[in-house]
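Worked example 2:
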Amino acid sequence: MTTGILQARGLCKAYKKNQVLNGLDITIQPGKIYGLIGRNGAGKTTLLGILTAQNTHDAGEVSYNGEPVWENPKALADLCFSRELQTTLFYGQNPLKVRNYLQAGATFYPRWDEAYARRLMKEFGLEEKKRVSQLSKGQLSMVTILIALASGAPVTILDEPVAGLDVVARERFYQLLLEDYERTNRTFILSTHIIEEAASVFERVLILDDGRIIEDAETEELVDQFRYVSGAAEEVDRVCQGMTVVSERRMGRRKTAAVRDTDGRRAADLEGAGEVDVVHMSLQNVFVALCGHEAAE
């Protein structure tokens, strides 16, 4: 499957006085699984909505294969943004049934795979005649996942797809995602707060903070730049000289510093420093260090 490049430049979006996106730039390369992470209210859903022309923006531009996305049926046919279904419409119960969403998928996505959709329906135990307003949180997540995977869209975006699923169902979702990716080489973007378990799926990670993408990197390469260094405060300070201290925590005379070294050589050398303890950081640790806004002492 040939996938184009989805790109945004200088995106700005405000809700009244709240500036959500502030000159944001992003480039989504084809054939990768991206993880989009950020704190609550950082603007992840807003960004994804703008990239797929489901939301407006105040400034900037979004293009797919070099063409504007807004009001461009050709581009939009390649983009699927599958988000949590709403159980209410117009302040009342959602009258739509599961089958209505499948019919919409078949209508809007030219690569819709009906056979695959039916297989997922059976596996997830979904009833097509059931109203969306009657579905559990987990079932709503399953419909969201079904639409995304069956859409066949070259660029497929899922916003908090596993929020209502238990751990067994989440593992099955990741398995289905990787199977589809291996088969089709589609581009996937996953926005999630469950960073620890999803990290192994992310080929590339995007970190959104203060209205901008502050990190856009291969996941393993980014994580390998960071270490926790702990020990006597003076030893930690000595060992970490020349490295970027992202955050610090003190407990009496002891200190733990989250440090970053972009070339990776100093970080590797730290592990031979016997005076301090050096621990690799997970993607979740890295995210907290970068976006926790803890002032280094």
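The longest helix spans residues 167-184. The mean pLDDT is 90.
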